[in-house]
Each structure stands twice: as structure tokens, then as C-alpha cells.
Design a protein that fits this description.
Its EC number is 2.7.4.2. Pathway: Isoprenoid biosynthesis; isopentenyl diphosphate biosynthesis via mevalonate pathway; isopentenyl diphosphate from (R)-mevalonate: step 2/3. It comes from Candidatus Enterococcus wittei. The chain has 361 residues and is an alpha+beta fold. It folds into 2 domains: 206 residues, Ribosomal Protein S5, domain 2; 135 residues, 2-Layer Sandwich (Alpha-Beta Plaits), CATH 3.30.70. It is built from 12 helices and 12 strands. The strands form 3 sheets. Strands 1, 2, 3, 6, 7 and 8 form a 6-stranded mixed sheet that branches. Strands 10-11-9-12 form a 4-stranded antiparallel sheet, with helices on both faces. It has a two-stranded antiparallel sheet with strand order 4-5. The structure holds (3R)-3-hydroxy-3-methyl-5-(phosphonooxy)pentanoic acid and magnesium ion. (3R)-3-hydroxy-3-methyl-5-(phosphonooxy)pentanoic acid binds next to α8.
């Protein structure tokens, strides 16, 4: 039996701007996993996933018609990852066969509520990795990223794929997304193998070393948020508020690049300063678009962290889910943990996950 895992992620900085080509984000992989097992079957295969089986399929109405929103349901990411990996295997003249594929996830809380650690990215990466082993494809880390990214874009086309990069590479990364329009065009003229072989303009995934004194704390608000809905909402006012949106993109890029410099120079204070700056920029984005990113619970989480010398902000799309705090290792964290618990913020006892690198980048 084949068993592989892929970690969840948390955005540290650069959210929303990173959806646009060439604007960086810092993302980290955390030690909660999606695990996929594959076992050879005969004549008929199966796909099973306990966590996702009782998940409702959301729908909305467009011009009076009922339209399914499959973007929040990890099952579709599994299917899409299978399809693309098998298409690649076929291109390599590998004989396709039957298997039973099982998915288990630690990225959802026990009562089915999501922590916002990124099931869709991790599930796609774990599925591609499992089939990579099953069909002995020998894919590199970057090729796994590209197949998982293509699989996710087929289900949800408004994300940056930063979650996939974090899940593939592990640790802390600086990430900028590829030109999505360019990729769409290439998809209609190239095979998967060809798409894996060419450089994707704009794509950059750079592992970051962390200063020894840096400590990451994570607080959970307990309320789930829909990333794809929030990104849709921000994009709706993108045209109308063009100048302000452009300014946000530019300032976010300067801020995240400064933060990356902080990582390279072992400068925790600079990283903290840029966390605070990025929080401010996201607040401005909220004002520009009318989309609530830092909810009252996230606001409480951040303000308490700041009271105890932490630099804090919402993580990812916001609207709920988690907030992150960067503290200096030397400052005690227990007072903040108590303050959070009193304020009904759940500290998540997660660690950064570093994986052993298989093959070349
Ligand atoms: O809420 P999360 O952790 O899924 O993060 C979303 C981050 C965005 O930049 C808003 C979207 C994206 O795909 O990068
Ligand atoms: Mg989120």
C-alpha cells in the first residue's frame, strides 16, 4: 500500500496581492496533514474520504438557474488531481490501472469545521504524490507543484496556488504566482508533459531560512471563512477602484519584499514591523473594497497579541479562520495564551513543517 501526506499552510503576509502575477507572499507549511493511501484494485476502483462525505454541496442562483459552487468541496480537487496526473501518465505511455484511493484529513476540526489551513491545496498535492508513486512517475517537486496547480485551477480559478507551493515545498517560502492568463492559453496548445517542461512566467518559489529567535503563534477564531468568496468580492471592486487597488498591490509588494529581507538578514524586528505594515495595508484594502478581512474576533486576537509584544495580523483571506503572531523567542508567551483563551481565541499548537526534499527543485 502507498501512503503519502501533504501539510497544511498558513499565509504570513502578502494575501490578496499574491493573487496577481509578480506580487509576493510569505507562506508557511504547518504540521497538520492530508494523507492519501492507494491500494491496487481489480476492475473497479474507489475513492473514499470520511471527512468530506457529509459536506454539503453549496449552490447559488445565476439568472434564475441553480449553480453548484464546488470550490469549497475537497472531493473535486481529488478528482481533478487524479485526472491530470493520469493524463500525464498516459502521455508517458504508462498503462493506467485500478486502485482504491482513501483520503484522511487533519486540516478540518473534529466537528467538521475548517481551521482554514488549506485542505484544497494539500489534498491536491497529496493525491498527485500518491499517484506519482503508484505509477512510478518520478516527478520532481516543481512538477508536482505544477500538476497540483493545474488541478486546482480547473476547480477554482481565482487563487494564487500559494497554498500548493507551501504544501509541496514545506517550511517557510516566498511565493509569487505565474501568469494565469498565459497558462490558460498554453493549456489549449500543450500536453501536460510540455507544460511541465516549460518555465511558467512569473512563478517564483523560494525557501526561506528563519531567524533562530523567531517564533510563530497561531490563534483560531472558531469561525470558518470561504477564501474563494472573499477573493471574488475583492475582485468585484478591482476595476471600479483601480487606482487605490494598484496602490495596494505596490505597497504590499514593497512590504513583503522588506519582510523577505528580514528573513535573509535574521532580523526579527524587521519581520515584525512588516507584519504590522501588512495588517495596515489589508485594513486599507477592506476600506477600498468593503470586504471585511479583519473580523472583530481577528481584531481581538491581534490586539491582545500586540499588548504582549507580538506582531499580529489576520492570515489568508481573513473573514474568520486564523490569525498569526510573530514573537521574539525571548518574550514569554503564557500571558498571551491565557488572554486569548479568556477572549475565546483558541491557540493552535502547530509547528512549522520542514520536509525532506526529494529530487531536484
Ligand atoms: O484564507 P486562505 O488561508 O485560504 O488564504 C487565501 C489567500 C489569498 O491571497 C486571499 C488567496 C490566494 O489564493 O492566494
Ligand atoms: Mg482562510
Amino acid at each position: 500500500m502507498i501512503e503519502v501526506s501533504a501539510p497544511g499552510k498558513l499565509y504570513i503576509a502578502g494575501e490578496y496581492a499574491v493573487v496577481e502575477t509578480g506580487h509576493p507572499a510569505v507562506i508557511v507549511a504547518v504540521d497538520q496533514f492530508v494523507t492519501v493511501t492507494v491500494e491496487t484494485a481489480r476492475k473497479v476502483g474507489s475513492i473514499q474520504s470520511a471527512q468530506y462525505s457529509d459536506m454539503p454541496v453549496r449552490w447559488t442562483r445565476r439568472n434564475g438557474e441553480l449553480v453548484l459552487d464546488i470550490r469549497e468541496n475537497p472531493f473535486h480537487y481529488i478528482l481533478s488531481a487524479i485526472r491530470l496526473t493520469e493524463r500525464y501518465a498516459q502521455e508517458k505511455n504508462i498503462l493506467l490501472s485500478f486502485y482504491d484511493l482513501k483520503v484522511t484529513s487533519e486540516l478540518d476540526s473534529s466537528n467538521g469545521r475548517k481551521y482554514g489551513l488549506g485542505s484544497s491545496g494539500a489534498v491536491a498535492v497529496a493525491t498527485v504524490r500518491a499517484l506519482d508513486q503508484f505509477y512510478a512517475l518520478n516527478l520532481t517537486q516543481l512538477e508536482i507543484f505544477k500538476i497540483a496547480a493545474l488541478a486546482n485551477l480547473a476547480v477554482q480559478d481565482n487563487g494564487s496556488c500559494g497554498d500548493i507551493a507551501a504544501s509541496c515545498y514545506g517550511g517557510w517560502i516566498a511565493f509569487s504566482t505565474f501568469d494565469h492568463q498565459w497558462l490558460k492559453k498554453q493549456q489549449s496548445i500543450h500536453t501536460i508533459s510540455e507544460l511541465l517542461a516549460i518555465d511558467w512566467p512569473g512563478l517564483s518559489i523560494e525557501p526561506l531560512q528563519t531567524p533562530e529567535d523567531l517564533r510563530l503563534l497561531i490563534g483560531w477564531t472558531g469561525s470558518p471563512a470561504s477564501t474563494s468568496d472573499l477573493v471574488d468580492q475583492v475582485h468585484r471592486s478591482r476595476e471600479e477602484k483601480r487606482t487605490a487597488y494598484q496602490k495596494f498591490l505596490e505597497e504590499s509588494t514593497i512590504c513583503v519584499n522588506e519582510m523577505i529581507k528580514g528573513f535573509k538578514e535574521n532580523n526579527v524586528a524587521l519581520i515584525q514591523q512588516m507584519i504590522r505594515k501588512n495588517r495596515q495595508l489589508l485594513r486599507e484594502l477592506s476600506t477600498i473594497t468593503g470586504v471585511l478581512i479583519e473580523t472583530p474576533a481577528l481584531n481581538k486576537l491581534c490586539n491582545l497579541a500586540e499588548k504582549y509584544e507580538g506582531a499580529a495580523k489576520s492570515s489568508g483571506a481573513g473573514g474568520g479562520d486564523c490569525g498569526i503572531v510573530i514573537v521574539d523567542q525571548k518574550s514569554g508567551i503564557l500571558p498571551l495564551m491565557s488572554a486569548w483563551e479568556y477572549a475565546e481565541i483558541t491557540p493552535l499548537p502547530l509547528h512549522v513543517y520542514h520536509q525532506q526534499r526529494k529530487g531536484p527543485l
